[in-house]
Specification:
alpha+beta, 7-stranded mixed sheet, 4-stranded antiparallel sheet, about 20% strand, extended
């Protein structure tokens, strides 16, 4: 049996149609069993209470006398069934509809989210496949609780997300006048920050060591002793002086060059007419793309003043468990996940010979290495194109 469960119309167009069989004005509600891979989300529940801002689908009625589809109101349907696989509507006869078709159309973003989904396998499928293929009377693991398998699968997903799986997320953001942006809710570590110009070309923003963000801001008396409130806790200032001065610094590279020991981008001092005469220039400061710091006290990314109003992209790592849509594994890493679960279970069991534990440890390491190579997505033609310029002589 093939693994594809959606038709071409469902996958590419996000559409599924049903014949209208309710010819009366009364009767019970009509339930449509949909087979989209995308879980359906309704804006209203069975009682008509709003539970979401918008449904991710639209229901159209197509009658023979009028080929133009007519959209039903969102309040006239709700989603039920496992994983949002059923849509319930009122009797269509009471709406004056006696024949024709019902067309369920996913919204554009819901259809696009499903593109490329075949390259992944869900965490639940990983657990089910492991219980079928690796657990049994004739296997090394005779029995195990599903919760134990699920725990190690989630831990494996977290660890793989940091350096093996494609768990890099990105956001397009605008830097406000206060030069600060909150850390994303599912953030683990940053990969890259870059602002982009009118042509859409990204310019990397580098972290800086020129300034820092203090963790605490105690107010002191004339002797330098921190002051306390009536509860014995230190009184902290509302704003860091260092951060304020950094934010107020005007990064004017033509008129304010005297204040910067590193010179401008080209190592140029305007009044002295020195082009390229600044020897020993520090590479970490020899750039004009701006800087950022991570303010752990406020949970913010802080940027230099020359980036005010800039459009940036924030690329960051997550752990793959923040939301349900993240709990999926690339099929190229499927075997590595099975080996991770098997090794983790055997390593914690009593009575398992050490040579078996070591064998599964090596199998896990080999499968993980293969997954990393596969997911690096190195193509020979692309690699050859990059290396064509490496044989050139570079004069210093």
């Amino acid at each position: 049996m093939g693994l594809l469960t959606e038709t071409n119309a469902q996958y590419y167009s996000g559409q599924e149609s049903f014949d209208i069989i309710d010819n009366g004005s009364g009767g019970s509600q009509i339930v449509f069993d949909v087979t989209f891979n995308t879980p359906l989300i309704s804006a209203f529940d069975i009682n008509g209470n709003r539970i979401a801002s918008v449904s991710n689908y639209i229901i159209y009625v197509i009658q023979p006398a009028s080929p133009t589809p007519v959209a039903l109101l969102e309040t006239w349907s709700y989603v039920s069934g496992p994983n949002g696989s059923q849509i319930t509507c009122p009797p269509l006869g009471s709406l004056g509809v006696t024949s024709g078709q019902i067309l369920i159309q996913l919204r554009t973003y819901a259809t696009q989210n499903n593109y490329g989904s075949y390259e992944y396998i869900s965490l639940n499928d990983i657990v089910d496949n492991f219980l079928v293929g690796y657990v049994g009377a004739d296997n090394i693991i005779p029995s195990v609780k599903r919760t134990n398998v699920l725990f190690h699968a989630k831990r494996g997903l977290q660890e793989f997300s940091y350096d093996t799986l494609k768990s890099i997320k990105s956001q397009e953001l605008n830097i406000p006048p206060n030069l600060s942006l909150p850390i994303p809710q599912d953030y683990v570590n940053y990969v890259k920050l870059a602002w982009f110009d009118q042509g859409g070309v990204e310019r990397i923003i580098y972290p800086t060591t020129l300034t820092s963000n203090p963790q605490s801001l105690p107010i002191q008396d004339d002797s330098g002793i921190p002051l306390q409130d009536m509860y014995g806790e230190n009184i902290n200032a509302s704003q860091s002086i260092e951060e304020t001065r950094w934010a107020n610094q005007q990064w004017d590279w033509t008129s304010n060059w005297q204040n910067y020991p590193w010179g401008d981008y080209w190592g140029y001092y305007p009044t002295l007419n020195w082009y390229g005469r600044m020897y020993g220039l520090s590479p970490e400061t020899a750039q004009r793309n701006g800087w950022f710091t991570i303010n752990e006290r406020t949970g913010m990314f802080s940027f230099s003043s020359d980036l005010a109003g800039a459009l940036i992209t924030l690329h960051y790592l997550s752990d793959g468990l923040a939301v349900d849509e993240d709990t999926k594994i690339p099929k190229m890493a499927e075997q590595a996940m099975y080996m991770h679960i098997a090794y983790s279970l055997l390593a914690l069991r009593r009575g398992i010979p050490e040579y078996i534990v070591q064998r599964f440890k090596k199998d896990r390491s080999a499968a993980l290495r293969n997954s990393k190579i596969r997911l690096q997505n190195i193509k020979l033609d692309e690699f050859t194109q990059v290396m064509r310029g490496k044989s050139k002589w570079i004069k210093h």
